[in-house]
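During the no-cost extension, the postdoctoral fellow (Dr. R.K.) reprocessed legacy sequence entries with the updated structure-token encoder. One reprocessed record is reproduced below for audit purposes.
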Amino acid sequence: MGEETKRMESLVRGIVQGVAFRYHTALKANELGLQGWVRNNKDGSVQVEAQGQGSSLNDLIRYLHKGPMHAKVDEVEIKWMETREISGKFIIKR
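Re-encoded structure tokens follow.
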């Protein structure tokens, strides 16, 4: 039997805009086979919503705590949510 599908929302704070955080997060999420999106917020944070296997989500959460080379992550908030029907790749929202 396969692993259970889970869904999470994350808010990442620190130096996370202007450092290719969204781009690298989308690459990592697609590499992990996750669905969802990442976007910049007006307050300087980055928001992530992802759905997929629990172990893949945990790998993404670990990645969010460090980010790409020039990022400086100060805080990562995680909220687990109800899964829903979605399809397609993990995308960058504008």
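The two ends are 37 Å apart (CA to CA). The CA atoms of residues 5 and 53 lie 5 Å apart. The remaining legacy entries will be reprocessed before the final report is submitted.
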